[in-house]
Amino acid sequence: xxxxxxxxxxxxxxxxxxxxxxxxxxxxxxxxxxxxxxxxxxxxxxxxxxxxxxxxxxxxxxxxxxxxxxxxxxxxxxxxxx
Length: 82
Prior knowledge:
This protein is mainly β. The chain is 0% helix and 48% strand.
């Protein structure tokens, strides 16, 4: 099964080699037929400590690195995203 990739905003970079990423998703409410926004925070591994608060990053699933970290920050390759 392929690994999931999510995109979100870094809300905290205070931990060593760890960032907290807020991922927002939208869906249609089944009864009200209204667009609803939900967000969730993920702890992600940032090996080089390069991510700063406010940046938009992509994270990918990985094997558990600690009790709460099961995601890694994808390295941003400018030409690779084209």
